[in-house]
Amino acid sequence: MPQKKPKLGQNFLVDESACHRIADALGDITNRTVVEIGPGHGAITSILATRAAHLHCIEFDPSLAKELTFKFRDNSRVTIHQADILEFDLASIPTEAPLDIIGNLPYYITSDILLHLYTFARANLLRRAVLMMQREVADRIAATPGISDYGALSAFTQLHARVENLFTLPPSAFSPPPDVYSTVVRLDFAPRFAELHVDPAGFNRFLRAGFAQKRKTLANNLRSAGFSATQLQSAWPHDLPEQVRAEAVSLESMAELYRSLGSYPAGTGAPTS
Q: Is 5 contained in some domain?
């Protein structure tokens, strides 16, 4: 008989060896505060609970949160939060050092969760994340400019962290098995704004504008954001083709163009986040 899929579409990791490999990828967490996103039934939680100085688990499903609260009721180092990670303020977790993050991300909101994490990385609140996601998304965030997988999520990820794809798991590692393969990724947070000599808020807006419509060239996207053809022509780097799309442009070249342009024209309706 086929296994019944949980009501929220969760695919729980049941490969014990994989659970240990994922926990090991965080490194030594003896003196660290760790946040686990979507702990489910606690397969990885049980490992982390014996290693971390303190473990905060953020579980959206009320029944699973209740189950975890009971399971770890005698462990004072484990705190269960029944909450939506996209609305959870990681800055509210008491810690003297940047947080470590671990989790099996829901496939349908992986990008949203990553972008949510980057807002805290910019504030130097995160050290490292070990995250499991759909293999295709992992390939995208690790892609380099000029290949088909590279896009806005690649750029935003590599602006905030060093990316390492660790290993891939088959559907059989989960219950119920998903229709896709899953890859475990390690992100070592190291925002590059200072290195690129750009301000975080402005450059993030600029990247969003540049990648706004995939089929448009970078110049056309920036014109839609309010920059005039004259501005773009005067600021355009000599080594950047005029018809290039954002997907083929390195972060260094993006930063060079952003610095040359200076700021958004007033009242253009440029992206605000």
A: no
